Amino acid sequence: MAFASSQQQSGKIVSTAPSARQWSSPLMVFLSFAALLLAWHAGATLWPSRSFPAPLLVLQTFISETASGDLPYNLAITLWRVAAAFFLAMVVGSVIGVLLGLYRRADQFFNPWVILFLNIPALVIIVLAYIWFGLNEAAAIGAVALNKIPNVVVTLREGTRALDPRYGEMAQVYRFSALDRLRHVLMPQLQPYIAAAARSGVSLIWKIVLVVELLGRSNGVGFQINLFFQLFDVAAILAYTLAFVAVMLFIELVVVQPLEHTSNRWRRRSA
Amino acid sequence: MNTHQIAGVGARLKVDIEEKAFRTSNGATIEVLRDLRFEVGQGEFACILGPSGCGKTTTLRILLGLDREYQGSVQLPGLSEASIGAVFQEPMLLPWRTVEQNVRLAMPKHLREANLDGLFSTLGLSKMRNFYPGELSLGLARRAAIARALAIEPDILLLDEPFVSLDEPTAQQLRHMLLSVWSERPTTALMVTHNLQEAIMLADRIIVLSDRPAHVIGTFDIRLPRNYRNEQVKADLLRSFNTRFAGPGGVP
């Protein structure tokens, strides 16, 4: 009896702690956002100004811009640029990073280049890309990717240096095909580094994409924000910004996190 | 400089290493192997026994094709390219793949879909097929590594102290398991060990190495089938081994 009751008790203690946290976390997020909205609303009613619109006005602008089709169109254009620049930067950066991690000589030679490109301001790369390659889509996406590539190179170079050579030897002895080596030996070891590069990559790239659009494109969220800046339409600026942040949050929650969860499955249940 | 040649079916494992040296970081050379010559017959289970640090693992790395900086020649049994079932000192399972995926990934394409139920059940792994290596004890991970080595139906089995750092009952259980899976399809096998009792239990032939630079001091053949080797016989074998290899340069 005593054993059973103590087991029940300990079971209860163990089960309440995580479930309480799970229950409170979305509620906390909701409360926190609600408080922010309330403070915004209170501030906007206390000091009414064209440059500080109330949340409701922003919502109205969002709805009308969505209904007209402008917002979805520009959002889609920007998202496309983010995606293209992201994949370009990840692929090129990963390949260069792995090569520099594998070959010490190449690394010694190219390291100054990497440092140089890490320290060129994004604006300079964008302006030069537009001057040299014209105000076109390729120059825009290339400039954004070029801003991100050095980061990916540095992260993946570290990841490659941390590879365990014994897994490679095992794969060699058992004659893994090149594809199997890549899929089952190399990528899983690089996965944390790729995830880290991708994480910081998405947040960096979408900010730079807006600058690129502002400077040399005639559509996209960045272009629209510049337009509304000329018109001094703060409600529209906020509507576009919030819509875009919401989309990026959605991608983070629905794509990035579940993907990380799946690829780290083997880590969680260690004995 | 060296030849890592492979002969036709039925060929023996022939090792003839004239010299193998390592260069240390301060430029000095350490001679690890010197005139190391031995052979292992088809279907024979041989153990390499020697003091620790004498170059046993180096010899195995040469046989595995992981170290080609040596002078001499090595001949592996099997067809054009010998398939090697290797059991490393560490299990070296890919932690991000399950036990079964680890085994199947090592298998050549034409065996990939083979039925592994028998192998897994002999090794007591039937319930662990979908476990990740991180969820296994060292003993179970070693069994999975043995399963991987045998699943490829190798021409030669090379084992590097596969029972080290296990408690004695677990190690003994694993030795019996290894013997039963190996007996189902006896392949030429070479196991590195520093445990004489283990060698006497498993081997047809014990190859005794000297201290560095390693060469063969002598071989100790055990013609008695393994199932006749009871405690009394093993004690006798141990005694006769010790009288033969006693003295300086012998095995502790």
Structural commentary:
The complex is a heterodimer of chains A (271) and B (252). Chain A has 271 residues and is mainly α. Chain A has a domain of 174 residues: MetI-like fold, CATH 1.10.3720.10. Chain A is built from eleven helices and no strands. The N terminus of chain A is likely disordered. In chain B, the strands form two sheets. Chain B has a six-stranded mixed beta sheet with strand order 6-7-8-4-9-10, sandwiched between helices. Helix content of chain B is 30%, strand content 24%. The longest helix of chain B has 17 residues. The radius of gyration of chain B is 18 Å and the shape is globular. The C terminus of chain B is likely disordered. In chain B, α2 packs parallel to α4 and α4 packs parallel to α5. By secondary structure, chain B is α/β, with parallel strands linked by helices. In chain B, α5 links the parallel β7 and β8. The interface between A and B is medium-sized, with 21 and 24 residues.
Summarize the SSE layout with pairings.
The complex is a heterodimer of chains A (271) and B (252).
Chain A: H1 2-46, H2 55-68, H3 70-102, H4 104-119, H5 122-133, H6 137-161, H7 165-173, H8 178-216, H9 221-231, H10 234-263, H11 265-268
Chain B: E1 2-3, E2 13-23, E3 29-40, E4 45-49, H1 56-63, E5 71-75, E6 84-87, H2 99-106, H3 117-122, H4 138-151, E7 156-160, H5 168-184, E8 188-193, H6 196-202, E9 205-209, E10 216-221, H7 231-245
Parallel strand pairs in B: 1-5, 4-8, 4-9, 6-7, 7-8
Antiparallel strand pairs in B: 2-3, 2-5, 9-10
Helix pairs in contact in B: 2-4, 4-5
Strand arrangement, largest sheet of chain B?
6-7-8-4-9-10
CATH architecture of the largest domain in chain B: 3-Layer(aba) Sandwich
End-to-end distance of chain B, in Å?
35 Å
Distinct helical segment count of chain A: 11
Output the structural class of chain B: alpha/beta
CATH superfamily descriptor of the largest domain in chain B:
P-loop containing nucleotide triphosphate hydrolases
